[in-house]
Amino acid sequence: MAAEAAQPSADYDEAQCIAALAQLERLQNQLDDLRLTLPRIVEPFHMPSKPPMFHAFKDNVIKAQRDMKTFKSQWQSQETQDIFEHTRKSAAANPDLSAGAQVRQYGWIEKEEREKEMVKKNGEDEVRMEDVRVHITKEEREKILSDWKEANPSIKVEEKDECKELLIPFVADSTKYRFRIKISDDANATQAIKAECEGTSEPFTAVTRCLASRPNANDLRYLLDMIAAYKMVKGLRCAKCECMLDDDTTKPIARRSRQIAGANETSETVWEPFHEGCLDRNDHLPQVLK
Ligand SMILES: [Zn+2]
C-alpha cells in the first residue's frame, strides 16, 4: 500500500504541475544560495580582531551545515523523488522536450501561492452561495436571456434543457472562447449558477477562475453581461495597475463592472479588464460589507 501511495499519478493536472515546478524552484533557490557558502565562511577572516572573527566564522559554518542538511532532506523527500519519477516516465513516453523551452524557470512559487489563495476564496464563495436562497423560474430565465440577446445581437447562444444550460462561443482578442453556464434547478435545493470557460490551458482556466470569483454569483443577467464583456471590452490595459501584462506576462483576463454617473443623474455600468492578481480580494462580498 505504501509503495502504491508513493507512485506518481500518470498524468499531472495543472495544479500538480504548478506545485511540482514550485518545488523545483525552491530547490534551485536553495542551490543558488549554497553557492555562496564558501565566500560566507571565509568572509570573517577580513575582520581585525580575533574573538568576533571566530564567532562569525563559527556561526557561518553552523548555518552552512544547516542549509546543506535542509537541501539534502528536501532533495531526498518523497515529494521531490515523485516529481523526478514523473519526469522520467513522462520523458520516456514522449522524448520530445522542445515544448519545455516555453516553460518559464521562475515565478512558480508565487503562482502556487496565488492559486491556493484562489481555491480557498472559491471555497468560501460556495459556502456563501448556499446561504443565499434564490430561485429563478423557467419563464424568468427565458426573459433574462431574451433581454440580454436583444442587448447583444452579435453574440450567439445555444440553449439547452429549458435554458438551464447555455453555450456561448465567440472570438475576441483573437482568442476562441466557449463559455458554458449551468443552472441547477432542483426545487428543494439551493439554485446555483455555474459558469466555465472551456479549455484546460491558459487563458481559459484563468477565465473560469475569474468567473467563479464573480460578485453577485446568483445573478444570471450579471453573469451574461460579464461574459459579453469578454467580447465587447478589449483586455488591453488592467483597470487597476494600468499595465498591459502582469508579472506572469499574462493579459488582463478578468472582467468586472463599475457604476459611473451617466447623463440625467442616471448611473451607467461599465465593464473593465483586470489581471487575475489585481482583482479585489473582497470582490465577491456585497457592496455594503466592504
Ligand atoms: Zn493589473
Mean pLDDT across the residues is 84
- The helix content is 40-55%
Major β-sheet annotation: 4 strands, antiparallel
The total of helices stands at: 9
SSE pattern = HHHHHHHEEEEHHEE
Note down, in words, how this protein is organized:
Helix 7 packs parallel to helix 9. A four-stranded antiparallel sheet has the order 1-2-3-4. Strands 5-6 form a two-stranded antiparallel ribbon. The protein folds into two domains: 90 residues; 177 residues, no CATH class. It has 290 residues and is an alpha+beta fold. Strand 2 and strand 3 form a beta hairpin. The chain starts with a helix and ends in a 16-residue tail after the last strand. It contains nine helices and six strands; from the N terminus they run H-H-H-H-H-H-H-E-E-E-E-H-H-E-E. 47% of the residues lie in helices and 14% in strands. The N terminus and C terminus are likely disordered.
Q: Tags for this entry?
A:
290 residues; alpha+beta; 2 domains; 4-stranded antiparallel sheet; 6 strands; 14% strand; binds zinc ion
